Fold these 3 entries.
Entry 1:
Amino acid sequence: MLGLSSRLIASTLLLAIPALPLSAHHSFAMFDPAKPMSFEATVKTLQWTAPHAILWVQAAQVGKYAPGLWSLELPTSPGNLSKMGWSRASLKAGDKVIVDINPIRDGRRAGQFKKVTIVATGKTLTVGAIPGAQPPK
């Protein structure tokens, strides 16, 4: 039979388990939607990983930002991106692009992805509604 302290620990752990997935997802409050940016860059890689894909691009001087590598976080998972028509090959290393982002508030070369236009083709990729998705009833 479990003692009082063992039951208390076990109860606490059982109550904490459902909260784990909620704490794993983070807020996008670190990005500043009041200061949207658009700039030309070259794709280094599209990091196709959960919970959010990340687009890495190399850019020259962008306003106050020195030339360098930017980390652009897409607001959804690769699974959802696939449902929106994306694939891990949607953007390739060396592609010249124009990216639209909300910059990170702390001044690093990072931001929340809004859209990307591939210069050579004019094709624009965004993150929006999943085709065929129905609103909740």
Note: The helical segments are 4-16, 20-24, 78-83.
Entry 2:
Amino acid sequence: MKKRALLIGGFHKTHSLADILIERGYRVTAINASHPHCLELAQMNGVTVIHGDGTKPDVLQEADAQKVNLAIALTPKDADNLVACQLCKQKFHAQRTIALLNDPEKTAFLYKMGVDSVACAVNSITSMIEQQEFLHGIATLVPIGEGRLNIAEVPIAQTAPITGKKIWEIDLPPEVIIGCILRGDQSIVPRGDTRILAGDVLILISAGKQEMSAIQKLTGRS
């Protein structure tokens, strides 16, 4: 069965991402409030187009948001992208959400509100799609030293089981450590009593093949 992607708002960005997603085997649905844009997007092979406001539950329902693996909000308004992602995640249970963000200072806030990934450019979204296909949308993994050591970048959502816990309270595999915490514009070297907050991005350093087990424990996703 083909994976499904929902693109909400945008036009040029939507056109570019739709091409990429189709090449990667997704069935793509696009929601757009502009009728002329809908007509142009409808000319793309493999794209189903819905005319409407992607922040409205009835429009998302019409677009079968409950069936999508990936929902990407691309409107020019950060607030609309947040609402669209929240609806897709909370009401329609989309597996993963990505919000395009114009104001980078809002990044931590969007993570705290439950958006899975936040990007400030389409090329960042493309990179996230590639990463998510490899690690199910949970982390960015970088092998070092011919694969003997891995560094993983793991965003922590409000619903993650470790949110609010201190480092010493987290049961990680013995070959995995949290090397750094990215919090807004801060880089924190963690100590045992450092508390994990929603919106944090954890930098994991692991040996062997323990990173996936650690990521599942940190995020609560299988």
Note: The CA atoms of residues 22 and 28 lie 7 Å apart.
Entry 3:
Amino acid sequence: MDQAKLDHFKEILTAELHRLEQELAALGSKDPNKPDAEYPESGSNSEDDNAAEIAEYVDELTLEARTESELRDVKKALDAVSKGTYGTCKYCGNPIDEKRLEARPASSSCIACKKTLTQEL
């Protein structure tokens, strides 16, 4: 991959890193081992209100976990940029198609390996 394309992906990844960090700050946590999404409390103790509070809390935890995972992927991709291994499949060592990287810049595997891993033959 030439330097211009590498710089392009680094810029995209850096912007994504900042976006995800802001999103996590809004959710209240950056530590995937210690989720601390705020438990909503309506002040009512009816079964319907309690169920709604629990559903909202679980949704926040799920969103937080997914965002944490995306942030880890972006950090790994930026690390690969600095090591000179960005755009290379971590499983087979072949280049990852640039169209895949445009669609998901934090990708660490080529489409063939990803399909094999997820058993999408």
Note: The chain is about 60% helix and 0% strand.
